[in-house]
Amino acid sequence: MRTLPNLPLPEIPADQVQNADMLARALRNLIDDGTVAAGQRLPSTRRWAERLGIPRGILVAAFEQLCGEGYLVSVPGRGTQVHPHVRTPAVRCRAPDQSRGAGALDPGLTSAPDRTRAGRDLEIDLTQDAPEAGALDSPRWRAAWRDAAGQTPEDLGPGGLGILRTRICAHLERYRQVHREPDEIVITAGTREGLALLCRALWPAGARIGVERPGYPTMRAALRALGCALTEIPVDAAGVLPPAGGARERVDALLVTPSHQYPFGGALQRERRSALLDWAHRTGGVILEDDYDAELREAGAPMPALCALDDPVGGGVVTMGTFSKLLSADVGVGYLVVPRRLLPAVLRVREALGVPVPWIAQAALADYLRSGDMQRHLARLRRRYRRRRETVAQMFAEVAGVRVLPMDGGLHSVVEVLGDERRLLNACVRSGVRVTGLSDYWGEDASGRAHGLVIGCANPEADAFTEGVRRIRRLVVSGA
Fold first, then answer.
1. 136-371: CATH topology
2. Any bridge partners for residue 41, and if so which?
């Protein structure tokens, strides 16, 4: 890393050093106008604070803020310096570094904000509502779609296109250790549509569904819209607890995210998995396994889906999967893995309502899965999302009152904060960043809620993502 000699103590007017924000702004201006060069080593905070006549803590806080914004970098043994690749006027048009390794942080973390692309007036969406995985731009997907468009459509049947169900079986065997027959797969238009199909087929008069606390608000809203009554089931470090069996926790089904609990990211422990399967066997209850991003797990071998441990004939686990988070929200194709005892009821309702996914989309996805490009695409996604989670972790490292939860994969990061979550969310909106509050993942009972942010890693481009996280860090550091 290029380092220039120590910078002589810059003169900064006294009216610009009254607090950390003002001092950071003054230093940022010195870097932006080229007075302080890229790679320049800064004086020690103690010596410089004495010269400015301010408490050292103000200068330390200003340095931390500018490190988070990418203007400065702290190098062990060398102190703090202006980042060598900061976009000062002399290097603002520098071409991107093409030598970055796969494990490097996202572009923009180590450079000042590019206001032509990720300026303060640009709204940045860091929610989980519309992940964009980008596979539809690939030549292989376009070829699959063209080939499907040139074929003569065949009868789908209530379960969906036979060749797609066969390809999904191979996909599940590779990534989820699930060994099922194609006729146990039912094609859906995504997880929520599959959930609606199950509710109509299995509980037409309404059901009492246990949901994880915390858990995904969108699925709760879908269940309520389907006329279901919800019972919150607590989650601990080992995962969701089996329903206790008392009147308060007597449920017809349990909606769970065992491979990657949402939002905290933990995997359901083996003993807890066995307890859930035992609950379903004893009570006749159904476990609705939301397998929303299991293919993006990074640590160790692929974790088996809960249905892989269940009896495929008389069992009680229905796995709901989707390709929307892996390919694009525009694909709109998902699936159910249904035990045979429940299959006739599900197929009767599907036949009455019709298959919601067009033949051409099913045929194109079947061809894409056959091509092997899905494996390469998933590998790219895992690298991309890992870099973004690393970006979040580095941005908030050593920020007081903040904890970034460890994740072994997935499409989001969780940042716990000690401050006022609602105030922080409002400040994010004012700064042009859309993000979700962590407390929203609890139900109506406010007890035991954690507070912070759930940062989606899938949607914006790399520079916009980094700029969005940078804005959030600035707000947290300033106490917004």
1. Aspartate Aminotransferase; domain 2 (3.40.640)
2. 6, 81
pLDDT digits (tens, 9 = 90+) for 307-357: 999 999 999 999 999 998 888 878 889 999 999 999 999 999 999 999 999
Could you read off the pLDDT of 192-215 as tens digits, one per residue? 999 999 999 999 989 999 999 999
101-125+383-480 with 136-371: one CATH topology? no
| Assigned CATH class of 101-125+383-480 | alpha beta
What does the domain layout of the chain look like in residue ranges? 1-94, 101-125+383-480, 136-371
Topology adopted by domain 1-94? Arc Repressor Mutant, subunit A (1.10.10)
Residues of the chain with confidence (pLDDT) below 50:
1, 87-120
pTM of the model: 0.72
